[in-house]
Amino acid sequence: MKKMTKIGLAIMVTAMAFSANAQKTGKTPEDSVKCIENLSLYQEAYKMKNYVDAYKPWKEVLQYCPGYNKNIYIRGGNILKTMIVNAKTAEEQSKYIDELMAMYDLRIQYFGEEGLNKARKALDLEQLRGEAAIEDYYRLYEEAVKLDGESLEPSYIYKFFEATIFYVHSKKVDPTLIIDNYDLASTLLEKALKAKPGDADTKTAISNVEAAFSPYASCEQLVDIFTKKYEANPDDLELVKKISNLLESKGCTKTELFFNTTEKLHAMQPSPESAYMMGNLCLTKQQYAKAAEYLKEAVAGVEEDKKYQANIRLAYALQGAKSYAASRSAAYEAAKLDPTKGEPYMIIASLYAETAGSCCGSGPVMSRVAYWAAVDKAIRAKNVEDTPEMVERANKFINTYSRHFPSQTDAFMENIIDGNSFTVGGWIGETTTVRTVK
User: Fold this and answer.
1) Tens of pLDDT along 106-126?
2) What CA–CA distance (Å, rounded) separates 385 from 40?
3) What is the pTM of this model?
4) Where are the domains of the chain?
5) Buried b / exposed e across 391-418, counting CB within 10 Å, b at 16+?
6) Is the N or C terminus of the chain more exposed, i.e. has fewer CB atoms within 10 Å?
7) What does the angle CA 129 – CA 133 – CA 135 come to, to the nearest 5 degrees?
């Protein structure tokens, strides 16, 4: 009787000691006693790195007080992996692997961090069961990334993408999954790098993802993968945006699919940036009038640091459309935005040279006077931008079109003398200096 009283008293004292946090030490006083007893046993063995002896009391702890602390899960991983390595049969090994997977579920139940622990579970499952468990560990990585992608270690983001490729290959899943998950993985890693610029682990993960994706990133393959998807859902804004952005990032801007999706994107969600993109695409197709319309939209709305280039592209589009005066206006606007650039003046020089034969009259002199104004602009270009490239380009233009000046004899016959001032008529309307070829 006295013995029973002592046991009861011990249980009562233990229950009182842990009543403040019964969830940690067990649901009942009896569970708490067993928890504390086995904690001591497993911890002693664990400290001696005798993980095999630690296994049984550790399992008791997990059974009676699974919410005690995180350490029982951290150490439990080492204990179970030792049991897996030491297992004598495949069945025994499989049992311990199942216990490891169940341990992760308990850890999530009691300590949260669902995304991170699912990623850890996926990695262990991949390493322990390999290809046979591809669908299971892929799903775990996928769930982890969707739950906590922005807080996961970069290496898990890479493992998620790598698992995607293995999954597609082994299960013959639609290869667009690789594209979708590349987009997700690269977006998460870019955000991580912005949050921690220069982080070595993030940079490594980005490099690994890009290397893994490279076999699927040729323009031909991307177009092949996405064409049918786009044709089936041409009004899916997110799909259209994804295709356009991905093709642009991979340098596939000359493909018909890129043109179509970018045009569609601009129609569905117009912006100055998409107008600029469409203007450039139409320029490459020599659709000058259409390019000019898009670029006018762009010029009106793009940010200040992009206005110079938008006006330059507009000037070229208008030149192609033979709207010479409007092209010159766009070039002058660009020159005002960046007075250090020679490009606007080279555009105007080419406008004058292109129209020289028709702008100002006929005959051996009047059909050539526009070349004086054209060369003036090329000289201005290299004066405002004296980079080697611009100087070379301007000099080449000057040398070419100086040979088109009127002859001294023809000019003299019309009382036009070298060095005199002369106003070029027509749409050009500029005052220049007479120069002749002797």
Assistant:
1) 999 999 989 999 999 999 999
2) 80
3) 0.60
4) 356-438
5) eebbeebbeebeebbbebebbeeeebee
6) N
7) 160
